[in-house]
Input
Amino acid sequence: MTEDVLTMELVGRRYFSDGPWALRDVSLRVPAGTFAAVMGATGSGKSTLLHCAAGLDRPTTGVVTLAGRTITRMREASLTRLRRDRVGFVFQSYNLLSELTVRQNALLPGRLGGRRVRGADLERVLTEVGLAGAADRRVGELSGGQQQRVAVARALVTRPAVVFADEPTGALDPTTGGRILGLLRDAVDRLGVTVVMVTHDPTAAQVSDRLLLLRDGRLVADAPTPDAATIASRLAAVSGAVAVPR
Ligand SMILES: Nc1ncnc2c1ncn2[C@@H]1O[C@H](COP(=O)(O)OP(=O)(O)OP(=O)(O)O)[C@@H](O)[C@H]1O
Output
């Protein structure tokens, strides 16, 4: 049986004690080596789900396990260590330091955590993302697509169990975005990494294996990813008042 890299059990999140639930009773399992896409209308809870799953935010109710550990009540220091060692992040705004080089950016999370990455490992990851030979270039001189490659390299260099991506292609043109999605797909297929990606784009979601659909904070569908047209119609259904087609 494949190990679940992420599980959520009746997870709820509200930001104020008497406020609305941004996430309600979400239960799911993501096995190792899965590419999962999270979709839903704006405000449906996608980023909240991602942040609770990745240990960047604490749910109000329920239990989250990540890379085999229950993180819900984990102490902050242990959670930081788990994130550093087992998790990679790729966000829409690349979260890179433009004055530093590609190498310095890619190694920064490991450095901050006192972990050394071997030069050969960095070179291999840079080659995987198509940045061989660019290690000493300043990130500020690179194009948006190249910068997102650096973000992917940084997420992969510690060989994480899971990569969380929030709109990783949102700021890129379709061709460049397609290449970034290809890199993430490759990490799943060749390295066995699990990817959980929030996206608004049915074409982007098409690279995933599993489609998780949210409506008003509830998980209303969790099924193998269909073709782009079907994704678009399911998305339209959960964004309006129409029933979700199965
Ligand atoms: N830090 C916060 N404080 C208060 N409310 C928040 C906070 N973050 C999110 N919310 C609320 O929680 C709900 C879900 O927000 P979330 O950002 O998870 O949705 P989303 O599906 O990612 O939206 P989008 O597609 O617009 O990014 C929204 O009603 C939002 O206003």
User: Anything to note?
Assistant: The mean pLDDT is 90. The radius of gyration is 18 Å.
